[in-house]
């Protein structure tokens, strides 16, 4: 097994390699290493390799590709600790809690799930009218574009099912978490055939744009913002490229008056603040009934006060910094706007702008107008607006009025009532008494402008394959 230093040495840029970028720890400001920055020429070379490798990879049996994926999962597991340390240093998330070690473990679990999900040939009809089967064939080369918030795990969500179905992959990682994903790919490529999995670290405006426009890419998988998703739709349209888009969310939670505030407080906290709030399907606006509003705010604040934030390599911390200055500025702007509007700061809202690192304190904002900026815009950070309501129909209307609909949650001691309410919410997933939990066998994706297509499980495998009916 490689050490952190050995793994880092394998992925940093070398002298004379071309354009490079310095990578700094968002918690300390320390230099981690030098990342390569590649361009369109390197992308075309990567597509060449993927195209050349794809026929032989597709010609393998399903069992043979499954075996390769399981060996890749074993390789990730063997390198878990150095991968987690690099992820913590580059992304900022702590090692412990639902963070860096958790994410690397998720890479292992999702790779094994993609390998282990059965996808038999479907018999559509078999009677006097005829016989027909549904098969799922490889598309070809899949272009994957992964984000900076869960850079390793979301890359795996794109890579593993694509490979399972006989495609090869060209991956463009986020520009601010390049080293983490380079390391993940390096570990996987120790056991995968050459050319099956390729990575091109480069800017979205050049490499990402060229990847989405390439007529040699049969499928694009993208996780990121809605505006970028719309540009991908436009760029890929001339080639009728298949798309799976998991786009921005501004998830709502509705707390009904029958809850026990103390009982739900910790789940509320992690629904909102997992990965320091930097999660597409995090709870980002919380509507609480007037009967339990003050108690919910109080209990949530008690939980939040006991969740330490700091440098990720320090074992006690479970919250970290924002990953980059641009995201810090977004959170800071939205909280300042809420404060100026007269909303009540329950805790936080006062970052130390002179300290190293992009730390924004855990922030709860109460008694805020339902149409204030912090409610309407996705903050993607550790600041939660808590909106008071008295009529559940009004809460549903508020939850549904935005153009996005990735996830949502309903909180109630009456599960049947919660399910009835869930059916009225426009979101790809509605959780009950929790928020944001994912399972590799449960399809995930958005409604409205939170994207289209589904990942995970059988639907996720079908999404990276070309359905073909064989009739007769």
TrEMBL record:
InterPro entries in alphabetical order: Ald_DH/histidinol_DH, Ald_DH_C, Ald_DH_CS_CYS, Ald_DH_CS_GLU, Ald_DH_N, Aldehyde_DH_dom, LUC3-like
Keywords: Oxidoreductase
GO molecular function, a single term: oxidoreductase activity, acting on the aldehyde or oxo group of donors, NAD or NADP as acceptor
Oxidoreductase keyword on record: yes
Active site (catalytic residues): 246
Domain of life assignment: Bacteria
Domain Aldehyde dehydrogenase: 16-469
Family classification: Belongs to the aldehyde dehydrogenase family.
Descriptive protein name: Aldehyde dehydrogenase family protein
Species: Leucobacter edaphi
């Amino acid at each position: 097994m490689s050490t952190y230093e050995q793994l880092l040495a394998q992925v940093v840029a070398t002298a004379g390699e071309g354009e490079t970028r310095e990578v700094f720890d968002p918690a300390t400001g320390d230099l981690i290493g030098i990342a390569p920055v590649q361009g369109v020429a390197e992308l075309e070379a990567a597509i060449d390799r993927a195209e050349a490798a794809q026929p032989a990879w597709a010609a393998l049996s399903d069992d043979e590709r499954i075996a390769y994926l399981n060996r890749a999962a074993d390789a990730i597991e063997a390198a878990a600790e150095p991968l987690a340390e690099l992820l913590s240093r580059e992304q900022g998330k702590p090692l412990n809690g639902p963070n860096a070690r958790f994410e690397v473990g998720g890479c292992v679990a999702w790779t094994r799930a993609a390998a282990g999900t059965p996808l038999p040939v479907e018999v559509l009809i078999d009677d006097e009218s005829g016989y027909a089967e549904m098969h799922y064939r490889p598309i070809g080369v899949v272009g994957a574009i992964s984000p900076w918030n869960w850079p390793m795990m979301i890359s795996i969500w794109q890579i593993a099912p694509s490979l399972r179905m006989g495609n090869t992959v060209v991956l463009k990682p986020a520009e601010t978490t390049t080293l983490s994903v380079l390391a993940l790919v390096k570990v996987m490529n120790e056991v995968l055939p050459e050319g099956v999995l390729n990575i091109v670290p480069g800017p979205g405006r050049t490499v990402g744009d060229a990847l989405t426009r390439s007529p040699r890419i049969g499928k694009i998988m993208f996780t990121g913002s809605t505006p970028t998703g719309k540009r991908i739709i436009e760029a890929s349209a001339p080639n009728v490229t298949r798309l799976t888009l998991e786009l921005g969310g501004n998830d709502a939670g509705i707390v009904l008056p029958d809850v026990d505030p103390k009982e739900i407080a910790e789940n509320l906290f992690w629904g909102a603040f997992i990965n320091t709030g930097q999660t597409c399907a995090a709870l980002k606006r919380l509507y609480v009934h007037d009967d339990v509003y003050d108690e919910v705010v109080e209990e949530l604040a008690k939980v939040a006060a006991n969740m330490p934030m700091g440098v990720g390599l320090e074992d006690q911390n479970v919250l970290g910094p924002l990953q980059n200055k641009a995201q810090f500025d977004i959170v800071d702007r939205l909280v300042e706007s809420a404060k100026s509007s007269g909303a009540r700061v329950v805790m936080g809202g006062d970052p130390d702008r002179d300290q190293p690192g992009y730390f924004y304190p855990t922030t709860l904002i109460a008694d805020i107008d339902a149409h204030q900026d912090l409610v309407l815009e996705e903050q993607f950070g550790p600041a939660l607006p808590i909106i008071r309501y008295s009529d559940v129909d009004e809460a549903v209307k508020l939850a549904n009025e935005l153009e996005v609909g990735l996830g949502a949650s309903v909180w109630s001691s009456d599960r049947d009532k919660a399910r009835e309410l869930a059916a009225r919410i426009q979101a790809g997933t509605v959780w009950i008494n929790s928020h944001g939990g994912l399972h590799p066998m449960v399809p995930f994706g958005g409604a409205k402008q939170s994207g289209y297509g589904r990942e995970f499980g059988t639907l996720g495998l079908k999404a990276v394959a070309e359905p073909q009916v064989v009739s007769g």
